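New to this. Please check this fold:
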Amino acid sequence: MRKTLLCLLASCALQAQAHDTYFNPLDEYDLDSGLYFASVSDALDRYADRQAERMSGLSSSTPAAAPKVVNVFVYNPSKKQGYNVFARDMDKVSAVVIESGYNSELRRMEFLGAGARLRNNQSMAARKASGAILIETLEEATQKHTVWLTYKTGGEPKPLFTYNPPSAWHLDVRNRVIRLVKRASTGFTVTEFPWQ
């Protein structure tokens, strides 16, 4: 019962945290590949730390921080194998973009986790979903964001670019391009990266 309550509380905290980030925590199957994607939270680590404090008799006066997403788990049901995308947990995963399939009724591409990062995703012609995955991480000490590129088939994630706010990025779905938009003295500079 206690474990169930902990899982429920962690899930609620992750849902609340999703309003501070660009995506809802992942817990879905990809229509295109059949792979299962799940957010990896630091909730169990935080719970273990609190339990250790209680056992030692040293109770922290600071309230427990809300759990955050620190990695992405991928499971292949046909191979019965899974892995975390990053070899080590990150400070915070703040966005994930996985193109999952085409919705013929709405004439747009469907995504897992993408949230507010999508642009130009309407009145689309049918096409196969991209095999690429974008993951944005946040280094909390410096507020530096890094966008990583990896693939549904696996492999080590590679950094695509880094930025600090107020710069921002989005995926132009129709034109299959990722745009990094930075403020410049005369307006904006835009850097484009292909979305395969």
